[in-house]
């Protein structure tokens, strides 16, 4: 069955002016936007045009206003870092997950094989901090064991969350 034999009835239909037709006309390539309210036929389209004009107005902050949030961000970040560093030297012995993370740091620094089912990023960060602070991976981690004076455990605790 061929469809080109049917008559075209679209010419007999009345032209519908609505917000949808406005949107279709304005979004086509090369279409002219209706900015004059006299060309709009309904109150709904007039309201639509008002809202559309308000949405497309570009409001830019001055350059001075743009930098205020950077100052607030910097202050909050510095306060967070400062409060995080308070009390990292207490207690002077191993606590909780330091036993596990320290043991894994020893494995990473000594390049010995071990198997762990958890993702390695946190342990690698602790091992990196330990290596940067000069840790030689000679301490045997156990719960409650005091650190020796040659170990900079504050540096290792600083990267752990």
List keywords for this structure.
161 residues; mainly alpha; 2 domains
Summed up, the helix count is 7
How many domains in all?
2
What is the mean predicted local confidence, pLDDT?
78
Strand content: under 5%
Helix amount? 40-55%
Large-scale geometry: elongated
Low-pLDDT sequence parts:
18-32
The biggest sheet amounts to: none
* Cα-to-Cα separation, first versus last residue: 72 Å
Number of strands: 0
Radius of gyration (CA) equals: 34 Å
Structural class of the helix and strand makeup? mainly alpha
Strand and helix order: HHHHHHH
Describe the model.
The protein has helices spanning 19-27, 43-56, 63-66, 68-85, 98-110, 121-132, 153-159. The chain has 2 domains: 3-56, no CATH class; 88-159, no CATH class. The protein is mainly alpha-helical. 48% of the residues lie in helices and 0% in strands. Helix 5 (98-110) crosses helix 6.
Q: How would the blueprint of this fold be written?
A:
Elements (H helix, E strand, L loop, with lengths): L18 H9 L15 H14 L6 H4 L1 H18 L12 H13 L10 H12 L20 H7 L2
Helix pairs in contact: 5-6, 6-7
Q: Can you describe this structure in just a few lines?
A:
With 161 residues, the chain is mainly α. 48% of the residues lie in helices and 0% in strands.
């Amino acid at each position: 069955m061929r469809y080109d034999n049917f008559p075209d009835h679209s010419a007999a239909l009345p032209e519908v002016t609505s917000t949808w037709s406005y949107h279709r006309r304005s979004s086509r390539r090369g279409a002219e936007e209706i900015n004059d309210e006299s060309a709009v036929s309904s109150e709904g389209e007039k309201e639509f045009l008002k809202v559309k004009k308000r949405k497309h107005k570009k409001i830019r902050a001055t350059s001075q206003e743009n930098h205020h949030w950077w100052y607030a961000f910097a202050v909050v970040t510095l306060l967070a870092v400062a409060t995080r560093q308070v009390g990292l030297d207490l207690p002077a012995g191993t606590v909780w997950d330091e036993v596990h993370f320290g043991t894994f740091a020893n494995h990473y620094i000594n390049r010995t094989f071990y198997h762990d089912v958890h993702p390695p990023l946190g342990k690698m960060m602790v091992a990196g901090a330990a290596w940067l602070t000069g840790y030689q991976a000679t301490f045997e981690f156990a719960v409650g064991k005091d650190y020796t004076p040659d170990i900079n455990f504050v540096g290792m605790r600083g990267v752990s969350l």
